[in-house]
Amino acid sequence: MPKKKFKVMVKYEWCKACGICYHICPTKTIVRGELNRPDIPDHSTCIGCLMCENLCPDFAIDVVEEKSEEVGVENA
Fold first, then answer.
1. Which domains, ranges and CATH numbers included, belong to the chain?
2. CA distance 46 to 50
């Protein structure tokens, strides 16, 4: 079974740059970027724990699972 992949989506127009997301991220997928705003240089390190999404006071973060691109594999 392949490892699940996740993508961290930030709605920057909602973000107030509080820093909770990059302080709480266990894998440091989210890091402090320009003007203290969250930056995600490498989505592949995200484990999908949802801590950033659940603790964001502005509801500015969504963690979405990337769909597998395996061909010919169907769930029965």
1. 5-66 (3.30.70.20)
2. 9
